[in-house]
Amino acid sequence: MGDGNLDALLSAIPLPVLVIDSTERIIAANPQALTLIGQQARGRNYVTMLRQPALLDAIEATLSDGIARTTRYLGNDGAKDTTFRVSCRAVPGMGDGGAGSAVLSFEDMTDVEQAGQMRRDFVANVSHELRTPLTALLGFIETLRGPAREDKAAAARFLDIMQDEAARMNRLVGDLMSLNRVEGDERVRPTATVVLNDVLSSTQRSLRHLADEAGVTFVPEYPDQPVRLIGDADQLRQVFTNLVENAIKYGGSGGRVTLRLTVSAREPALRAPGARVEIVDHGPGIDPVHLPRLTERFYRADDHRSSALGGTGLGLAIVKHIINRHRGRLRVESTLGQGATFTVILPVQESLD
Length: 353
Ligand SMILES: Nc1ncnc2c1ncn2[C@@H]1O[C@H](COP(=O)(O)OP(=O)(O)OP(=O)(O)O)[C@@H](O)[C@H]1O
Ligand SMILES: [Mg+2]
Prior knowledge:
By secondary structure, the protein is α+β, with helices and mostly antiparallel strands. It has helices at residues 3-10, 31-37, 46-50, 53-65, 110-145, 152-184, 196-214, 233-251, 303-308, 315-325; strands at residues 17-20, 26-29, 69-76, 81-91, 101-108, 193-195, 217-221, 228-230, 256-267, 272-281, 329-335, 339-347. The strands form 3 sheets. It has a 5-stranded antiparallel beta sheet with strand order 2-1-5-4-3, with helices on both faces. Strand 3 (69-76) and strand 4 form a beta hairpin. The longest helix is centred in the middle third of the chain and has 36 residues, at 110-145. Residues 175, 242, 246-247, 250-251, 281, 283, 286, 294, 300-302, 306, 311-316, 340 line the site of adenosine-5'-triphosphate.
């Protein structure tokens, strides 16, 4: 087969593929391979085009002994670093003089590597979050067994702290399970009809105690007519509970938290009819640098303060997944010193009006 035919054959393969003959020249390559290693690769010596020692060693060895090898190639597509698994296989009797050639095919592993990295980060984060309360618990147990053995007052105090720390671990595990569940059914559309006014007023009822303790008054602004949509009432309650709880915990110094519900026949964010729930506080607000990352797992804008308040940093990650499941949007706006507004936009069906 001539080199031209070979190119035509390779261009029908969706992966980057190239052929190196026994004289070490690249005799054929498909467009994907040229994009990856350089447009001038055809006819060149492979060593000048492929410059990565592990890959060069593999090619050299395969050309000389005919045994297949697998190695890695690190690229960059202009936007990000990429990782390829390269398979290097011998093809006897091709190229000049019928001597052995090698065929290289590149498999893009970037997404797989990235998923692996995310999993490792997640495990590291969970371990770190659990270690802090566990270390505290172990320390107090030791103290109760030793120095504080006969000290009733100290023991009572330590047991209180131990209970808080254990409760914190319990919350973390609960949040992790919740996150797991909502991630699992993100693709399953909800089917029940939900009245948003009711979900909001029940959220308000369940958080009244927390609000009272923080000196926060709720300002509900709901329309008189019920706002119905297709959704999962428990999950939506979980969304508003976390947003209102955050408004109380982090923005409570502003004294008021507004829960506003509005509907629109044409919601710009959805290009369709939609309901908007705005949770507005008048506390310290959130520095804009934090806004893009706020819904990441374990992300806390003010790490110290949030941990002190018992936050795990998973609340908004759960919120985000639930809103995605409902094909909605989450918007966060904040001006430092003036508070924060979290807006949940959800599609409503016209036929339900
Ligand atoms: N209304 C708000 N005002 C100021 N900062 C906020 C507000 N809401 C959220 N934040 C910041 O965003 C961070 C992430 O919130 P998120 O609800 O995800 O976690 P959390 O409240 O720390 O923990 P969890 O909700 O799991 O108990 C918080 O730690 C806080 O720093
Ligand atoms: Mg929260």
